[in-house]
Amino acid sequence: MLNYNFKIAEVIEKIKELKAKKIALQFPEGLKIYSTSVANEIESKTNSKVIILGDACYGACDVSDQDMMNLVDLIVHFGHTPLPLNYKIPIIFVEAYSLINIEDSMKKSLKILEGYNNIGLVTTTQHLNVLEKMKTILEKKGKKVFLKKGIGTKEGQVLGCNFSAIKDLPVEAYLYVGSGNFHPLGIKLFTKKPVIIADPYMGDVRSIDEFSDKILRVRFAKIVKAGEANNFGVIVSSKEGQFRLELAYHLKEMIQNSGRKAVIIMMNSITPALLMAYRDLDAFVITACPRIAIDDASMYEKPLITPQELEIVLNKRDWSNYEMDEIKYDENKNIINSI
After folding, report:
1. What is the mean pLDDT of the segment spanning 195-200?
2. One domain, residues 63 and 150
3. Beta 195-199 vs 173-177: how paired, if at all?
């Protein structure tokens, strides 16, 4: 457990406080390697029975509260912050902050950021505990740093389906501290401004531009291919944090009004093997997790597109107005079923 802080002592204290006897532990894919150690420690220090939820988990939208209602008293979810949802049973969210050193990559980023004065600073859940440290490093070099709390996210935090913390900031460029390309890609597409990645895991600093250009070429190809489709499957996720059925109805109507056919398919997990059964469908529109169509595109034989990409297919959105899909919530913790 050297790479992450699982806050085991705090979790155990909370379990005892709640007098929970049956507990489910949920981990995202990157943290599952630690799951058995965490489970053993919790079970040895409480009087509770512990089970590990082994299904794929990519975010707080994957919390299995409805499935576990009559089976456990408590879910401990590691690696994410809560979404604005009304959960059915008690859930403890443990951010599991990364213990990796971010200073080296931050200092390297200063060379690329040399020409920019006003910087938007963003990161993921794993590094929120050192956000102030990141800000200080930038400010010591004369940068003016802008942070914003998003709708359903903490200050400076982006999710794969929520980029509200980066919108409308008066900045010249954005610095994203974390791993991977998906989050900075979303920042680039929403803001159209330079995005620099300081990756403490790879130890490098890079611009998102090359990756963004590559992805946009892939998306253009998928959109063109979907434009040839006559029969669409509109996929709805049964997971509460991704459930956008009303949006799916709207998209189906749009497709039918264009003279094409569409059906709605509800799924919990979306995989290439499961979609192979729908041989009469030419393309799929994903109203579930926005990352499925983008990150996993090469895995699928037929084009998977987002609701915004469907608008381009149906000539309701101009390609120059391309943007990522997001799952948004209103003030009553309801998912907004519109594009």
Report:
1. 97
2. no
3. parallel
